[in-house]
Description:
By secondary structure, this protein is an alpha/beta fold. The strands form three sheets. Strands 2-3-4-1-5-6-8 form a seven-stranded mixed sheet, with helices on both faces. The longest helix has about 45 residues, at about 320-365. The N and C termini lie far apart (about 65 Å). It has three domains: about 5-185, P-loop containing nucleotide triphosphate hydrolases (Rossmann fold), CATH 3.40.50.300; about 200-300, Helix Hairpins, CATH 1.10.287; about 320-525 and about 565-710, no CATH class. About 65% of the residues lie in helices and about 5% in strands.
Amino acid sequence: MGLTNGSMGTRALDQGLTVQRTAEYDKVIALAGNPNVGKSTVFNGLTGLHQHTGNWPGKTVTNAQGRCRSEKQGYILVDIPGTYSLMAHSAEEEVARNFICFGDPDAVVVVCDATCLERNLNLVLQTIETGRRVIVCVNLLDEAKRKGIELDLPLLSEQLGVPVIGIVARQKKDLKGLLDTLDHTLHTQQQVCCVPTYPVAVESAVSRLVPLLDNATNVPLNSRFIALKLLEQDDELTAEISRYIGNDLLRNEPIQKALQEALCDLQSAGLSPDMLKDQIVAVIVKTAEQICRGVVKRRRSECDAVDRRVDRILTGRRFGYPLMLALLAAVFWLTITGANIPSRWLSDALFWVEDRLSALFCLLGAPQWLHGAVVLGAYRVLAWVVSVMLPPMAIFFPLFTLLEDVGYLPRVAYNLDHVFSRCRACGKQALTMSMGFGCNAAGVVGARIIDSPRERLLAILTNNFVPCNGRFPTLIAVLTMFFIGTAGNALQSVFAAVLLTTVIVLGILITFGVTKLLSCTVLKGIPSSFTLEMPPYRKPQIGRVIARSLLDRTLFVLGRAAAVAAPAGLLIWVLANVTVGEVSILQHCATFLDPFAQLMGLDGVILIAFILGFPANEIVVPIMIMTYMAGGSLIELESYTAMRELFVSNGWTWQTAISMLLFTLWHWPCSTTLMTVKKETGSFKWTILAFVLPTAMGILSCMLFTAIAS
């Protein structure tokens, strides 16, 4: 949806907010809340299919907008990113703060977790301070009851001075009551809300500015809130406020003079801008604590005790890491075994379409070269990439999202935080690294959850050191042919998963090493602190998990890969079929690269296959088979036994197999990943470094192994 001057005014245009009011849906509601409170579940329950997603202009942060209707009113809901505070420390928190403060929402619904209300009230109190109409939506009442937590919601509403409603969003309980509350709130006079009272020095400084701001501004934003932000001396936020108001507050002489006097008073009281922020946070936390004393009543619950016992196992020193490795191996085994049959079905369907296309070209009398370039080149490679890439991703990403929904992934980040801290990185990098097993491009996008720009870059640059599922077929084929056996017994898939996990652990260890190296050189810095929430263990929502993982991750990655697969197929066909002196250009390239490849324990065919597999790692082995057999298009062999015989007849040994494993593990990222790195960093410099680092690692490791083995 685009903006017009008549939709939200020029201020909204300046902020880049993309919400368009209509005659039917003229009320905009911001849906805010901490991460993991069920905010998106509320959004999905209210909007259903009437929603769309996009990116905030100038940000790598996605937004979701949807429409819903009550009996009286049509609403546009904006699901803003989860945030713990309006004191922004990341792009997501900045977007959330800016929409609440400067997006002119008609009301802000703050979704809270009933099982940890006190922490959630910090955001509620800060949002109330902005002067916006606020509705508190307490979700997960069923979990609170299970944990022996009772909430006095009428008392909470009385103490906050805003409407409060309790819901169970997963079961869609009382969502109609939320809409009724919105109707009532927007058509009644705003109540006097609870505003935290700060120390005398802070209140005195604020009182100097408020009367002047009341005269200088004519916006719904509370003058007290603006005064506090001016005193905090956040230049970026001050600029946003000035843009929203329409004039530079710091150039207003009376305001500038009063601000300097207020800052001098605070300095005399021993409050620097940083100490002032600490004081503000402390008061808000204390106010939330005081409110919750009468509102929240806890009974002893067996559920809490069970959760703690499970946590002691999953995050303990003795069992935490072994269980992580066992779970990783189980996910790989399910991905490997589960993808075989769907991949074969999809391959048969797509190659059936290829036969129909070939018949059509023959019927039309098209020349052989055109049929070869379009069908045997562009279409065949596209079909190969889709049939090999889609089934594993369609299994891995739902499994990954399932672990996230259950609440296990934050425990993984907690377990690995100590290791990443020693590398001067952020523990959240564990989550982006895990996502990279499905697709490195998705892992790069996942780095948005890391607040620090330096640590986000570390996660992006090192994500390719763990193999994605596009490299799994190559790794599994080499491991099976040379180290497991091709007999095809029942335990073969288990052995493959165990060996694959071992290889991947090596990739994880190298990730730690490269992260440490970058932290000590081009990306020096001290690891930042961050908030890592340990959500309660929850029953996963299977349908929502499958839909979210397929739409948000699988199709996103597949779409980008497919966009480059067809042109790559055309290039591969041309190289394999255009000859120079009765030898194809592809064979000439392989011969040219052979001396360098031999230094790495490979051969020219393997190296040219990796180069042509740049658009998608899934086609590396088919290109090798095609080149060894001097074919003109991608060829698939029926079994690993036939493949091993072909490779051995072309000079492969166990040393070649190990070098192949090493180079598969570490080489340049695929084109989809590099495009994503460029989009996320906005820099060719970091994109080039993301290409060079794993490539250099792969070449050096292969050369070192070859020298030792020789």
